[in-house]
Amino acid sequence: MTVTHARTDAPAPLSPEPPAPLHDGSVAALPDAVAVPGYDRSQLEPAVVHIGVGGFHRAHQAVYFDELARAGVSTGWGITGVGLRSPQMGEVLGDQDHLYTLVVRGPEGDDVRVIGSLVRYLFAPDDPEAVLATLADPRTRLVTLTITGSAYPAGEPDPEDPDVRADVATPGTPGTAFGFLVEGLRRRRAAGLAGFTVLSCDNAQHSGDLARAAVLATARLRDVGLAGWIEEQVTFPGSMVDRITPETTPEGRDAIARRHGIDDRWPVITEPFSQWIVEDRFCAGRPPLDEVGVQFVDDVRPFEIMKTRMLNGAHSALGHLASLAGFSTTAEAMADPTIRGFVRGYLHEVARGLLQVPGVDLDAYADTLVERFSNPQISDELARLCRRSSTKVPTYVLPSVQVALDHAGPREHLVLAVAAWMRYLRGTDDDGRALEVTDALADELRALAELGGTDPHPLLGRTDLFGALAATPGFAQELEAALTGLEDGALAAAAALQRDAGVEAQESAA
Ligand SMILES: NC(=O)c1ccc[n+]([C@@H]2O[C@H](COP(=O)([O-])OP(=O)(O)OC[C@H]3O[C@@H](n4cnc5c(N)ncnc54)[C@H](O)[C@@H]3O)[C@@H](O)[C@H]2O)c1
Ligand SMILES: O=P(O)(O)OC[C@@H](O)[C@@H](O)[C@H](O)[C@H](O)CO
């Protein structure tokens, strides 16, 4: 493994380089392998623009739109994919007529199909004008985003940031997704058109509010009147999205070619589970996604909070702790009873701090998460779960710790998860092997983690990450104890929690 001190404004090491075509005659190339995905793609109307076409979009939103067309419900929602950061996805999709293979990997084996809802792909740095023209096109009714949580400014956008400067000073060649949205909307306003819906599909608590705040703040930097028009004309529904989608590796790609005889340079492998809950606030027409399993609600926040704190929080906790213990994938780590017990304990503590979620039994939800994380058919790298943790831990983990401290709730697993992140930041596992630390703040946080050792105070000084939690009585001492426990190794620290829980259970039974 390598230690990567990457800045998030550099393209993240998102996916492996797309593998070269096989074309050795042993397999059929897309789109020859499957001529059409079951409907006439020429009928698809380009009503959706999606920014950030990665693995998840192709395993989730694009699949729902594909199902709409496949089931004959509607061909009104074809997708124009837009990339801002790396050109490879566009190159691969361009070679495949924008078709790609979705492999749903469950206990019964692989379900393989070709997805056809992406009709076009634009790499913004090559042709910003085409992207802006598409956003200003009257046919565009919905813009969806999966640009990672780090792309949303915490507070106001930094006017000194070169990308934000481009959004304002050279709006014909914007630097950020929000700059593109604002200029696209400005052109619509100038042309007398209405707005479009902006639907964030990034994992976040209040994803819609984050997108709205970022778009309005970017607009205000340009023109207060434009910002006011956007407030009136554009809706930003929140959404809860869920489908565990690992990065596609060359090995995964080659296995698909061998097993299924399809030469797809960048297929997507995902799990059977899929969930999408969306707030019903669409200003330019709502796609009939309820016909294909999407749930529309008035307020998505309880679902977002549950999902980010339970699933994503447990993923972060598992990622850091199991990486320290030397594991590489979720399934491998979850097969270890100590790690599995730690994840269960973590989920239990989070659930204790959650309010009721409509129609959800949190214990049953926790059980499904343990099962999904353990899926041996899916090879999900722990390293993926540990990227951009300075954005993720404050969103996914720390709110649960705060709730537990405020209500004197059980929190040993939560605190160990924070300690494991701090220990992980030092960049080596329990056997001294290098860990991948891919984070905008990697260098700064590593220095603080090394300075502190088992003393969390240098890291807790980062109030931009810890907020009021840093000063919450008892937290620093509990963290210090957990960091000290980790000196014996991650597995030993997790096992100690299980021993303590066993003793407590015996005492209360007695
Ligand atoms: N993979 C999953 O299991 C999963 C599930 C639910 C939600 N998500 C969310 O979906 C988003 C994308 O995840 P993914 O797994 O597809 O990752 P990915 O790395 O495959 O794709 C990320 C995409 O975002 C783009 N991007 C990154 N930073 C950007 C920026 N600052 N501005 C514009 N574009 C940017 C990349 O170019 C890429 O197209 C994340 O927010 C993630 O939390 C992922
Ligand atoms: O996507 P991230 O990096 O914010 O978080 C990593 C994982 O927890 C996440 O991708 C999950 O797999 C996903 O949210 C499941 O729906």
TrEMBL record:
According to its UniProt entry, the protein's GO biological process terms are: mannitol metabolic process
EC nos:
1.1.1.17
> Pfam family of this protein, just one?
Mannitol_dh
Disordered as annotated region, ranges: 1-26
Q: Which residues form the Mannitol dehydrogenase C-terminal domain?
A: 299-484
Enzyme class, top EC level, equals: oxidoreductase
Reactions catalysed, semicolon-separated, are: D-mannitol 1-phosphate + NAD(+) = beta-D-fructose 6-phosphate + NADH + H(+)
Q: Which residues form the Mannitol dehydrogenase N-terminal domain?
A: 47-290
Q: Which family does it belong to?
A: Belongs to the mannitol dehydrogenase family.
Protein name (Swiss-Prot/TrEMBL):
Mannitol-1-phosphate 5-dehydrogenase
